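RECORD CONTENTS
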Amino acid sequence: MPVDFVYLGAAIGAVGQAFYVADTIRGRTRPNRVTWLMWALAPLLAFAVEVNDGVGLQSLMTFMVGFGPLVVFAASFVNKRALWHLGPFDYACGALAVVGIAGWLVTRQGMVALVASLVADAVAGVPTFVKSWRQPETESTGAYAGSALNAVITLLTVRHFTAPVAAFPLYIAIIATLEVVLIAGRLGPRLRTVRTAG
């Protein structure tokens, strides 16, 4: 697929984020602020690494995956109904994510930074994965579906697969798809209903 399709992926990702932001402002979605702040910082760190490593246009996907959560984080302060109450588990995951980001700041090595940002992003996402499992009605699929499509399109434009080029898009495709399945499929409540009925 021609590399210019990265623009299409970025546009799809932006539309998905816009729907999520709108749902947050209306109070229909209650994002976990720890997750969304870390989901902004880790990809923006990865974007800086990719630019430094000469990844090229494919790094636009990583930027969009970081910028969107930053907007979601800001939107969560607009409507008090969008507030998700944080607990010790959320803060612990946030602290571990910060440690992962600090790994890059200490080493300043490209691959270490990329791995650190992926680990930080995944750890930061744990509270939201748990929330999506337990209470999928507090989430919406827009941002995740857009991010998954953005990542897949980006991967389809890659001609020479290297870790700096492919690692973050592949990770985002997997994580975002998992979120869509958890939210749209209502897996947690369905499985709990089956256990109760059994």
